[in-house]
Amino acid sequence: MSHIEILEERCKGCLLCTEVCPKHLLRRSDHFNRHGYLVVEAVETPGEACTGCASCAVMCPDVAIRVYRSARRAGGRA
Fold first, then answer.
1. How many domains does the chain have?
2. Per-residue pLDDT, 47
3. Rounded to whole angstroms, how far apart are CA atoms 77 and 40?
4. Which domain holds residue 38?
């Protein structure tokens, strides 16, 4: 299964990533980083999983998101 990692100390809470996630797996958290920004967090939603599309990472102006894609098995399914 694919997943994302938020580098909280780089995040400025602009929320651009939340707008482009096709599965709506990102939201503003309720805690601050050491720079005083409310950071983004990944949300696990039953039945919805990260597809590894990397739209969030591409959109992030602060390079605060890493996407880890799951390996594809023969037949094209992860």
1. 1
2. 76
3. 29
4. 3-68
